[in-house]
Amino acid sequence: MVGKVKRIMQLKNINMKLSSVIISVVIVSIVASCNKTDFNYPDGTVGKSKIIYFPAIQIIGDKITAIAEGTAYNDPGATAVLNGAAVQYTTSTTITAATSPGIYTITYAAANAEGFTASDFRIVAVVPAAVATDPTVLANDFSGTYLRAATGVTSTWTSIGFGAYAVENPGGAGVGVGLYVVAENNGGNSITIPEQDSPYYGGTVSSSGETYNPNPPATYTWVFHAAGYGTGPRTFTKQ
Questions:
Q1: Sign, CA torsion 14/16/17/19
Q2: What is the three-state SS of the chain?
Q3: What is the pLDDT of residues 110-123, one digit of tens each?
Q4: How far is CA 153 from the centre of its chain?
């Protein structure tokens, strides 16, 4: 019996020694593996890969604005950043006092060394001088929310000055929320969406067949010309 116990104790000692050896080998392997990895990469790299920083840009000031024809335009500009530092940006259009009436989109763009770009935009309406000084136009205020009963969807008008309005969802469609055009009151109660290359709609938009009745509740009708909107008149009632 004593011999049997002695053999069991010997086997336990052998197992403990083997376990100790295995643990030691694992620890040595981990340490050796860590020693082979050098995390002191050169600036701008991770291992063999180059770090690429992408630019970001955001305009300063209003997204949609208006000026009268013959007026100097002071562009608020944009903020462009690359890897935490300010960088130069370009603009697609320069608006001056000599710029003809119309709706213009200024695109602001910044790029990194690899040619990747980021951009933002601003829409500027240059209103004809005769409209921008018309007493009736200046007295009118078509701002507000209008319901298109045919869809149960609203369109919101916000005055940007000189008889011009930023109109959200001019087609009164469920997919038009957050999309804008510039509309103008160009005399009396007449309204129109001047032809414009809209960054919101990705192409040219305009209107036709417009009527505006200011008698409460005010109503208006127009055909909104944009890709996918058809040619039917759309009627809205002020809420």
A1: positive
A2: CHHHHHHHHHHHHHHHHHHHHHHHHHHHHHHHHHHHCCCCCCCCEECCEECCCCCEEEECCCCEEEEECCCCCCCCCEEEEECCEECCCEECCCCCCCCCCEEEEEEEEEECCCCCEEEEEEEEEEECHHHHCCHHHHHCCCCEEEEECCCCEEEEEEEEECCEEEEECCCCCHHHCCCEEEEEECCCCCEECCCEEECCCCEEEEEEEEEEECCCCCEEEEEEECCCCCCCCEEEEEC
A3: 999 999 999 999 99
A4: 23
How far, in Å, CA of 223 to CA of 129, rounded? Answer: 26
Is 134 in contact with 187 (CB distance < 8 Å)? yes
Longest dimension (CA), the chain: 120
Q: What is the pLDDT of residues 171-228, one digit of tens each?
A: 999 999 999 999 999 999 999 999 999 999 999 999 999 999 999 999 999 999 999 9
Q: How far apart are CA 181 and CA 229, in angstroms?
A: 14
Show Cβ contacts of residue 72 under 8 Å, excluding neighbours closer than 6 positions: 96, 97
Evaluate whether 121 touches 75 at the Cβ level (below 8 Å).
no
At residue 69, φ and ψ (nearest 5 deg) are -55, 135
Please report, for residues 41, 82, 146, the alpha-carbon distance to residue 53 in angstroms, rounded to integers and kept in the order given: 17, 7, 44
Angstrom distance (rounded) from CA 151 to CA 112: 45
